Amino acid sequence: MDWEKLNREEIKARKSKELIKIIYFCLLVFFLLPLPVSAADTSSPKELTNYIRALEKQCAKYGWTDIKPKEIPWEYYRTTQKKHPLLFVHFGDSEKNCVLFLGAVHGDEPPTVYLMLKLAHYIKDNPQIFKDKCIVIAPLVNPDGFFAKVPSRVNANGIDINRNFPTKDWHAEALKQWRKKQNKNRRYYPGQRPASEQETMFQIALIKRFNPQKILSVHSPLNLFDYDGPSSDLDSFENWLEKISKESNHPLRKFGYFPGSLGNYAGHERNIFTLTLELPSSQVSKAKEYFDKFQTSILKFINLSVTVG
């Protein structure tokens, strides 16, 4: 028996195992620890500039001439399958009253992009709004779907970002519900594993960095307000929301939550006050009208003080 050869092979096997452990540890740190959200990604400044130009071109195409994305001090973190930078802007630095706004989680809901871009402009021009607050706006979470030849709900990988969050019930329920309740409708496909998408990880990173007490995700066209958790202060928040619903003449309905959804991940599992604003339609021509309709409600949401006990 060649003992020397055996020893060499054993040493080689041990080194391979150690390397695998190191790689696994690095991946664990990368995905689970709070990550700094900055412009340190694969996009170059030129690519970011080109992306902003493409966004301005799309705004002009939709008739949103009052929107100038290049005037906003954007940051970005991660890029999509199509190499679109994932943009956000933040105003203020208070840790006690921080709110996160999300638009276009589904790319075929374009008025949500207008609302978030318009809000960013409005807050930039009115700095008193973010005094003693932190306001974070990610206007276009799913740019691949938004910029597609035919805008799509899913991203470039065919995955519904709002079913891809790593909720506790994802492995047991996400694919099962997609098969049974959605009849394998590709518009709602959650992916083969949770948090597989850059767009999902982008939102998770924003939540980890800014630790918001409130989240407002804007969608269309179901025409409702929907509240997802936490249950600890459910009555007081729903009372406030009922008042806002009446003031804005916008229905308040319990739409339910799904495995892998933001409401489940942030509201139910992390006790963040999570509200969905569903606009009445996805018509781009109605975007300005919707901002005017909901501006007051959005500003009240920013000023709402929440304490989770």
UniProtKB/TrEMBL annotation:
InterPro entries: Peptidase_M14
Cofactor(s) listed in the protein's UniProt record: Zn(2+)
Domain Peptidase M14: start-end pairs: 41-302
GO cellular component terms attached to this protein's record: extracellular space
Coiled coil: none
Keywords for the protein's UniProt record, in alphabetical order: Hydrolase, Metalloprotease, Protease, Zinc
GO molecular function, one term: metallocarboxypeptidase activity
PANTHER family documented for this protein: PROTEASE FAMILY M14 CARBOXYPEPTIDASE A,B (PTHR11705), SLL0236 PROTEIN (PTHR11705:SF143)
Entry protein name: Peptidase M14 domain-containing protein
Source organism of the structure: hydrocarbon metagenome
